[in-house]
Design a protein that fits this description.
27% helix, binds fe (ii) ion
Length: 334
């Protein structure tokens, strides 16, 4: 009978998994076990800490619904999503616009709009025009490319946080014959990631501010080109350098300009940004996205979906004076 030690236990597990038929699954699981064991040895994990970790992961799972993906949020706040995204971005066949996080608020159920339409049902914030071209890596226009956008409403919340039935501030557009896209929206606000769940508890216990800089998500695709998942971050936001999910990067910072003569819609502030898509490789077809619609990950756990993501009162109060409504005035990036 063999006696396991803190060191030999790892090899014993790897030995039992050695016949895993799928070579990639074998590689990933072996590395996961090696690193998990090394982590436990490094911190000399106690039984109480081990069960606390299990309780935490259980709560993360229980928080997931078709409208909420707490595990993606956990991955985002631990920088794992950003790491996978950065590694994936480096596999592009050619130089093109950088990728950014898909995040936990993407959803497949998105309305289709004609070019130039307004995606926000309520335009009580600052209306903004988004325009530019979608081209290949060499600047040739890509006509009829699909441009999906989503962002917070003017109150700093995503539609899906208010319930799965609500759809607002997201839309699917097509580029014209010259590769131009044209979208009207409202200026998004920086926001607290959902702090009312286990991931929020973790973030607050680490004394992190829990905020993302104001941004607009884009998912752009055209046949034979690598799908681009990215976001534009609004210049001047106080959290560009310390995004709680590590998504903001300098090359994706965009300025909201007044009176840009190039803007096709006059009289509104605008963001001009051209996106370049790399050609699609065979690997790209299999790579998938760093993220998913929460409903695609969790078909349903029996819980009704209800509004979520409001920061605790003490955090909200500390972030600034309220203007009107529970979220107004909390957010940066105006
Ligand atoms: Fe976002």
């Amino acid at each position: 009978m063999r006696a396991y030690t803190p060191l030999t236990i790892t090899d014993a597990v790897l030995e039992q998994m050695a016949n895993t038929p799928d070579p990639r699954m074998k590689e990933v699981m072996e590395a996961a076990v090696r690193h998990l064991h090394a982590f436990a040895r490094e911190v000399n994990l106690t039984p109480a800490e081990w069960i606390k970790g299990i309780e935490f992961m259980t709560k993360v799972g229980q928080a997931c619904t078709p409208a909420r993906q707490e595990f993606i949020l956990l991955s985002d706040t631990l920088g794992l999503s950003a790491l996978v995204n950065i590694m994936h971005d480096k596999t592009k066949l050619e130089e093109a616009t950088s990728a950014s996080l898909l995040g936990p608020f993407f959803r497949e159920n998105t309305p289709i709009f004609a070019s130039g339409a307004q995606i926000a049902k309520k335009t009580e914030g600052v209306e903004v025009v988004l325009f530019g071209r979608v081209t290949n890596a060499h600047g040739a226009p890509l006509p009829n490319a699909q441009v999906t956008v989503w962002q917070t409403a003017a109150d700093g919340r995503y539609d899906i946080q208010n319930g799965i039935e609500e759809i607002d501030c997201r839309g699917i557009f097509r580029t014209d014959a010259d590769g131009n896209y044209l979208i009207q929206t409202v200026r998004p606000l920086g926001y607290f990631i959902p702090l009312d769940g286990p991931v929020g508890q973790m973030v607050m216990s680490q004394k992190r501010h829990g905020m993302r800089p104001a941004h607009i998500h884009f998912l752009i695709s055209a046949p034979n080109y690598r799908e681009l998942v990215t976001a534009l971050y609004l210049a001047g936001d106080a959290h560009l350098e310390d995004d709680v999910v590590f998504g903001a990067s300098g090359d994706l910072v965009a300025e909201v300009k007044d009176g840009d003569p190039a803007c096709p819609i006059k009289g509104l502030p605008s963001i001009h940004f051209d996106f370049n898509l790399a050609r699609e490789s065979e690997d790209d077809k299999r790579a998938g996205r760093v993220g998913a619609d929460p409903a695609a990950v969790t078909a349903g756990n029996g819980q009704t979906t209800k509004p979520y993501g409001a920061p605790p009162a003490e955090i909200a109060d500390a972030a600034g004076p309220k203007k009107s409504g529970i979220f107004s005035g909390l957010f940066r990036g105006r």
